[in-house]
Design goal:
Shape: globular
Radius of gyration: 21 Å
Helix content: 25-40%
Number of strands: 13
Number of helices: 8
Strand content: 25-35%
CATH class of the largest domain: Alpha Beta
Largest sheet: 8 strands, mixed
Length: 311
């Protein structure tokens, strides 16, 4: 599986390379969802990178100004939430520390170390929230990212969550990987079967990350498509119509058997870096058979995936 990717934070290059217009309506809707107060399991998983918002704001215009105001309100709210999280974690840590000092058992030591990690994590989150957005950023499952779709013959750049949320609104359990769509299950798996041949997308990114085994321990490595300024993956998307929050779009990138260099690095999958000349066919699946669409995924861009240890 490919669980994380690095993206660019600006949109002009994306529009120049792939065409399409920004769907400001959907990006604004995404930000409004985050502002709404709902005791809802889905809302708690809304993760919108600051860099993605900053890139949109840099586009300028009326919609960008509205988005900037929403982002400003969110950052104030986020700051308060993170400060409270540090305060709560600090109190838990002090209690665990006192208990461990009073009685140095393995159980108390474990609790002390767990609370210490929680406090450090809360402090890091608070520190990172105050940093200015960078030019590039990573996304993980549940993060929103820009994807490209076809809407009535017109390419649109829209926000979608990286992990498919079924149209029923019931999340697939975390132990199932629904942020990658295995090519060999597109026509059989109940999550992908309703989407394959109907709701196709393109997901642009720079490189991807994976955990692999090195001498009995997991290490994170970064794969880069040498000779290419970024890449893209053939993807599928879904739309869940939330009764109160409105339409929520989510996506999954299609993966296939890895090329030799990726397999040698210890990873058993690779995003389908679809040939540029096949993008239109992928985004317009109507009129093509499932077999034709599957064969289309054989047409990949030539790329050698070098890898390095992730920083």
């Amino acid at each position: 599986m490919c669980y994380s990717s690095r993206l660019r934070a600006e949109y002009q290059a994306m529009k120049k390379k792939y065409g399409g217009d920004l769907s400001w309506q959907e990006f604004l809707h995404m930000a409004r969802i985050r502002e709404k107060e709902f005791d809802d399991s889905f809302r708690s998983s809304i993760k919108i990178p600051d860099e993605m918002i900053a890139g949109l704001i840099a586009e300028g215009g009326t919609a960008a100004k509205e988005l900037a105001l929403m982002q400003k309100r969110w950052k104030v709210k986020e700051q308060r939430q993170l400060e409270q999280a540090v305060k709560d974690a600090g109190a838990e840590f002090l209690a665990a520390e006192e208990k461990f000092k009073a009685k140095a058992t393995k159980t108390n030591q474990k609790a002390y170390e767990t609370k210490q990690r929680k406090l450090n994590k809360a402090r890091t989150a608070l520190e990172n929230a105050s940093k200015p957005p960078a030019d590039t950023y990573r996304i993980y499952p549940y993060y929103f990212a820009p994807i490209i779709i076809d809407d009535a013959g017109k390419r649109l750049i829209v926000p979608a969550r990286f992990r498919v949320l079924p149209r029923t609104g019931i999340e697939v359990p975390n132990n199932y990987n629904v942020f990658n769509s295995r090519r060999d299950s597109l026509q059989s798996a109940r999550t992908w079967k309703p989407l394959f041949g109907k709701q196709h997308a393109l997901f642009p990114f720079m490189n991807f990350y994976e955990w692999v085994d090195r001498d009995g321990r997991s290490v994170e490595i970064k794969f880069n498509p040498d000779g290419h300024e970024g890449m893209h993956a053939a993807s599928l998307y879904e739309i869940y119509k939330h009764p109160e929050l409105g339409d929520i779009r989510s996506f999954s990138m299609v993966t296939d058997e890895p090329p030799p260099e990726v397999a040698a690095a210890g990873h058993d999958r690779c995003p389908v870096f679809l040939g540029y000349d096949k993008i239109d066919q992928w985004l317009h699946p109507a009129g093509q058979t499932l077999q034709q669409l599957d064969e289309l995924l054989d047409h990949k861009e030539r790329a050698y995936y070098s890898h390095v240890m992730a920083a």
